[in-house]
Amino acid sequence: xxxxxxxxxxxxxxxxxxxxxxxxxxxxxxxxxxxxxxxxxxxxxxxxxxxxxxxxxxxxxxxxxxxxxxxxxxxxxxxxxxxxxxxxxxxxxxxxxxxxxxxxxxxxxxxxxxxxxxxxxxxxxxxxxxxxxxxxxxxxxxxxxxxx
Length: 148
Hints:
CATH topology: Pnp Oxidase, Chain A
Largest sheet: 7 strands, antiparallel
Distance between the termini: 22 Å
Order of helices and strands: EEEEEHEEEE
InterPro entries: CHP02241, Phage_T4_Gp19
Shape: globular
GO molecular function: structural molecule activity
Number of strands: 9
Helix content: under 10%
Mean pLDDT: 92
CATH class: Mainly Beta
CATH architecture: Roll
Protein name: Phage tail tube protein gp19, putative
Radius of gyration: 20 Å
Number of domains: 1
């Protein structure tokens, strides 16, 4: 029986579906906020003040944050600009793919109804030799996880 090794977290790509394909637009350095949790409602137990019942209400998803080196002529950045500046909100599906050694997807998280809520650029500093980093924040309704 072969030993199992967890996949590495640094080999992934992000695709915004419905935008023209560009090899540079799938390259991000960081993805955070891919999480879900069950929201609950607390109800005091009648006649027994020592206890509180907790009931599930709905699933909640945090906003996704994508970071990468500033990319000029990006279809994703243009989509962000249209949504935020022009208020032309166009929800898209987003796929986050964790890749294996052959660059094939191991797992895919499929985000539904995603649209940008924030774009930011890291500090510009003449005394620092760092790369310009842009951050994109996306709201999404839900996600599913698919094994490839």
